[in-house]
Prior knowledge:
The structure holds two protein chains of two kinds.
Chain A: H1 2-24, H2 33-72, H3 90-96, H4 99-131, H5 148-160, H6 163-174, H7 180-187, H8 204-229, H9 233-241, H10 246-257, H11 259-275, H12 277-283, H13 297-307, H14 311-336
Helix pairs in contact in A: 1-2, 3-14, 4-5, 4-8, 4-11, 5-8, 6-12, 8-11, 11-14, 13-14
Chain B: H1 9-19, H2 23-31, E1 63-68, H3 75-87, E2 95-100, H4 103-112, E3 119-121, H5 130-135, H6 143-147, H7 166-169, E4 180-192, H8 193-198, H9 207-219, E5 223-225, H10 236-247, H11 249-256, H12 266-280, H13 293-301, E6 305-311, H14 314-317, E7 328-331, E8 347-356, H15 364-374, H16 377-387, E9 390-391, H17 404-416, E10 420-421, H18 425-428, H19 430-446, H20 452-468
Parallel strand pairs in B: 1-2, 1-3, 5-6, 8-10
Antiparallel strand pairs in B: 3-8, 4-6, 4-7, 4-8, 4-9
Helix pairs in contact in B: 3-15, 3-16, 10-11, 10-12, 19-20
Transmembrane segments (chain A): 44-67, 109-132, 153-174, 203-223, 266-291, 311-333
Protein name (chain A): ABC transporter permease
InterPro entries (chain A): ABC_transporter_permease, MetI-like, MetI-like_sf
Amino acid sequence: MQHGKHQSATAVVAKVPGGKHPGAKSPRVKLSTRQKFERAYRQYGFPVGFLALPVVVYAIFVVSPFIQSIYYSFTDWTGLSSDFKMVGFKNYDWLLHDDVFWKAVGHNVLLLLVVPLVTLGLGLFFAFMLNVGGRSKKNAAVSGVRGSSIYKVVYFFPQVLSIAIVALLFQFTYNPRNGALNAFLGGIGLDSLQQEWLADPKLALWCLMVVMVWCNVGFYVVLFSAGMSAIPKDFYEAALLDGANRITTFFKITLPLLWDTVQTGWIYMGILALDAFAVVQIMTVGPGGPADATQVLGYMVYTKTFRDGQAGRATAIGVAMLIVTLIFAVIVGRLGRRERLEY
Amino acid sequence: MGSTPDFGRRDLIKRSAALGLVAVPSISTLTACASGGDDDGNKVDKGEKSAKNPLAVNESAGLDVVIFDGGFGQKYAKDAEAEYAKAFPKTKGKIKHSATQKIQTVLQPRFNGGTPPDLIDNSGAEQMDFGTLVAKNQLTDLTPLLDAPSVDDPNKKVRDTLRPGVVEMGQFDGKPVWILYYAYTVYGVWYSKTNLEKLDAEYPETWDDMLKLCEKAKKKGIAGWTYPGKFPYYMPFSLYPFIAKIGGPDTLIAIDNLEPNAWKHPAVKAAFEAYYELYKKGYILKGSAGLTHIESQTAWNQGKALFIPNGSWVENEAKKTTPDDFQMSVGAPSSLDSGDKMPFGTIWASGGEPFIVPKSAKNPEGGMELLRIMLGEKSTKNFVKQVSSLTSLNGGTDGLSLPPGLASAQAALEKAGKNVVNPRLQDWYVALQKQQIGVGALGEMMAGRMTPAEAIKKIQKFADDTAKDDAVKKYKHA
């Protein structure tokens, strides 16, 4: 997916130097303004014509709101009227001293660490099993476990459901009175393990993580499967001849050759973990509880703006989210830098 | 009412898109309109004042109404709009009606853009903050409506036809009345007479009897109480009047006024400890802490628990799950002991469904006129019949056969007489009441994770923090 985009982008860029040729023929002749313009147009017109509109749209809908909201985070704007004034760093001062904000940051960071790790880990494991994890058959050195094509489809099911539906279904599952989870535990005689799930501050956030992992893992199984099928089978054959087991082939062959795809997945999952708004809003006690145990920055922005009429503070939280995101992007960029393998 | 969540897919996509990584830009697409004007230049001309048209409504101008589509639905408003069109035939087809549960997300941008509707039912879990609306001068003073003659009796002003306390609730500081609460809600301990009869019991007037009854029920495998643990701010519906009953009405007033140590009053402690005992003795339905309001009401309808703290909208909201012979009824808080400052019967009742007319509405007279029609006897009876709730019109129920819950609410009001309390935390300080006191402390205490002493300490700190926060507008009881 990401690969395709890359290639087409480079293809467009590659054409640009080619366009230079006709104009580069006669550098000594003095040109009129009109001719200069025409030459410039011939040189750059094509790419500029294509880029202008997206850049304008991007500037209006992405860049300018970013700048505006940084501005609004220095005001006492309520979100209900256009009457507001500058208050300097007051919103940020409030932010730094607000317990709930720090709780939310902590939860977001925890989500950021756990959700991508578990999702991608499971995704890799399943994809590996589906593609090269099976017993060797007569004609092929490597193959997936039996029925792998069916599993691929089944794993993808959650991806088709809207997050709203998934969250509601899981809310029913977690219901402590007649939810499926407690019923199941009771049914197999493990009554002692029955919990109040979302109503227990120690478990609530983990319950949300399960949902986030559950609905995303299928997508990565498919993504990684596609990546794995591009790895030449000879590598595996060679490794197997040398006596490598499955675990070794996974870590020495599959993972290194799949690293680019994993990194892309990491960024997507990170974005998702920084959000978590929908699951919090639909599933949790309060929402955001019990006792702020599931507060996340996204939900705080929402309550501060719409419930409390403190849009100035909300935009300050938004800016804090931006900073967390940037830090995340930098870290991922650093960690992900690895030698690229050609094959 | 309450917080009936509805999760439309589109809404969620919109929201999760708006609040994910892009929280920053989306906040500002709203703010982009913030610089738009609040100009009043686009108002419709006033009509001619007459006996039939005391508010001088423009007889041919359109009207734009937004109704909260919650426990009461929206049909009652549509019916009133039909009456409006009958009174002003030229407006037929020009009345724009819409209903939503997402009042904030739908209307906030319209306020910012200076094009709000003419009448709004600003209710539900997503109501816009009144303090901010008032402080930012976004509302029309409804005094002309209150001073206009009522639809039924030209010799009586609208203000004189309302139930006690309704006008005051709409005032913030000083004379102007910014809000008209249309429904009238009775809060308390809700129960089924039938289910109590099965245990040979009546509603317990003292807390000792309450505990005895719960014990009796427990032996039969029935829980004493349940509550919507997902929204623990339902607990105050019976807890706050209980506090007032024990310590006198001033206890609640001090709490509302955010006075220092208001929560340290012995009455608060006594009430909290009484409720905590319900948990400790195992009288609370197992798993209540994880239930929504609908789930807990359903369990209560099924007879799995005897009592639930709730408001009078529950009869309509739980209609589908209520057995025919349920005999829904509301009880005032039981007496803790003979030292209680207020008599048994003391109850919390107040206006619900707050209607507002925005300042920059195009046709504010039209908005007020629709309210005047709604406060007439015809519309009131229609409302009572449709949604089984009282309205702010004092009376209006004569000749109607009321459903059991509503009849008991009416009876409870009569029994209470003057002993009606009206705690305001839930409309003055929403974050404090819901997120902090409700979810942060009461929910924890009822689930047994916090002792009453810890809960009180935490709540006092929350209240002090709110009092210190200058971004929150403060109110005082008059």
